[in-house]
Design a protein that fits this description.
two-stranded antiparallel ribbon, globular, alpha+beta, 18% strand
């Protein structure tokens, strides 16, 4: 028999209500299978499969118009752009789905052995599954390059350059004698299309894709709750003091939520089409290589630049697709090892930054053209993130996580707390366990051990645990 626990959700209330339909309230019923736990209110889906990130939430499926638009957005997200369909002339990936396979994070080419140093770098299949940011050491851009190095190009056009990476390895040992290994990248850029920039004049930082899990609930988060967390996120005994990032987008100062450094207030659909794929749109009508040699090469290949490549309506459908994706429920919540691991999570003070429970604002979220997703309103969610900036340190093995890249108020050593919901399914969805902004952590243990700065205390508490306790904590993380 499949035992289930039944939860009732009201449009303006949270989990655990005892109200019923006789009260005249709008009630949606969700059945929670035994061994599972809700992650994102009515956006929760009960999947443990390769499509766990890439399935619409039930509230989308229940609305015919939304479901049709979700399907259209899904197609635009996954369909490969071509030379005649807006791609290029230079780009990083040929579709959203090329880098975010199954709405997750495609295995980064950084580990695929394609570089001249034999250890990884720019891909050769039309995408690299990463972004390469380049700037001068004073933060300014180079004249012949923008903020992103576009290492792919359509046939007959020269890419801006190619990334190569050499990995350095360091050995360590837990106090109980168990060994571990950490590695960090050394980046080289070759095949510059124009100026060959000297390494001593260059800051280069690499980002592997973020998982598109929980984008809708994240965009519906109560901003005041995040600001309240920032006001009280001060634990001097552990060296923790988070702060919000604020950025000006579309002419308005806003709280940042998305991106590695909370440097965006929305899901950056328009920016993704422009910068990642070279697809012009109403917000970014110019080609990303405007004024560069690749414009002439593109013209010779038959490209024209007199119209936009994608409409605002289509981009809003992509926004809807991303916000309408379900969030995988927690799994194995009745397992004694997982339950013990949850205790270790709190014992290591991980929850002080990876905030377990937040709430969404009553009105839900708003899409690019103003469509309101009220279904996402007034939900209790469990993202395991405070969405605040924290100093992650600069001096682990002499390199740390400081990438010298400023985003809004975020300094190079500051990073948004990564939401952990769904993280235990990444290997099943995408076939790898590379974590952190540049994929240097090959598993969750390494990701924890890279925590410095405000994460130093938690890392040390983890290191001091015995092997069984560390294993239990990892099992808990894999249950999220």
């Amino acid at each position: 028999m499949n035992h289930t626990i039944r939860y009732l959700f009201l449009a303006a209330l949270t989990v655990g209500t005892t109200a019923c339909e006789d009260d005249g309230l709008d009630v949606t019923e969700i059945e929670v299978p035994k061994g599972y736990a809700l992650s994102a209110g009515i956006s929760t889906v009960f999947l443990n499969s390769p499509v766990a990130y890439d399935t619409q939430a039930d509230w989308v499926a229940g609305e015919t118009t939304l479901a049709m638009r979700f399907r259209d957005g899904d197609g635009l997200y996954d369909d490969a752009r071509t030379t005649g369909n807006g791609l290029g002339p230079v780009y990083a990936g040929y579709s959203c789905g090329s880098c975010h396979r199954n709405a997750g994070r495609t295995k980064p080419e950084l580990w695929n052995g394609n570089g001249i140093y034999g250890e990884g770098g720019s891909g050769s299949y039309g995408f690299s599954s990463m972004l390469v940011y380049v700037s001068r050491k004073n933060g300014a851009f180079f004249q012949n390059y923008g903020r992103v190095l576009h290492d792919q190009a359509i046939y007959g056009v020269q890419p801006e350059g190619k990334l190569n990476v050499k990995w350095h390895y360091e050995q360590g040992t837990f106090p109980d004698g168990e060994p571990y290994e950490l590695c960090y990248p050394e980046y080289f850029i070759t095949e510059w299309y124009a100026d060959s920039i000297r390494p001593e004049n260059l800051f280069c930082t690499v980002r592997i894709p973020l998982r598109h899990v929980g984008m809708g609930p994240m965009m519906a988060i109560d901003r005041h709750e995040i600001e309240q967390l920032a006001a009280k996120s001060n634990y001097p005994e552990y060296g923790i003091s988070g702060r919000a990032n604020y950025i000006t987008e579309k002419g308005k100062l806003q709280l940042g939520l998305s991106g590695n450094k909370a440097q965006h207030a929305d899901l950056t659909v328009e920016l993704g089409f422009s910068s990642d794929m070279g697809v012009t749109n109403s917000r970014y009508p110019e080609e990303i290589c405007e004024g560069q040699l690749q414009m002439q090469e593109g013209s010779m290949m038959g490209l024209t630049y007199d119209q936009l490549d994608i409409s605002a309506e289509d981009m809003e459908d992509v926004d809807l697709y991303m916000q309408g994706l379900g969030v995988p429920a927690r799994r194995n919540v009745d397992d004694p090892t997982v339950q013990h691991g949850e205790q270790m999570f709190y014992q290591a003070k991980c929850h002080l930054c990876h905030t377990v429970t937040l709430h969404t604002q009553p009105r839900g979220s708003t899409l690019l053209l103003g469509t309101q997703l009220t279904w996402l309103g007034s939900q209790t969610i469990h993202p395991y993130s405070d969405f605040l900036l924290h100093d992650m340190g600069s001096e682990i093995m002499g390199v740390g996580l400081n990438d010298n890249y400023v985003s809004g108020l975020a300094r190079g050593n500051e990073w948004r707390t990564t939401p952990l919901w769904g993280i235990g399914l990444q290997e099943k969805v995408n076939g790898h366990t590379y974590f952190l902004h540049d994929g240097r952590a090959r598993n969750l243990t390494e990701a924890i051990l890279w925590h410095g700065g405000e994460g130093e205390a938690s890392k040390n508490l983890f290191k001091q645990m015995d092997k069984d306790d560390r294993h239990a904590l990892l099992q808990f993380l894999n249950s999220l």
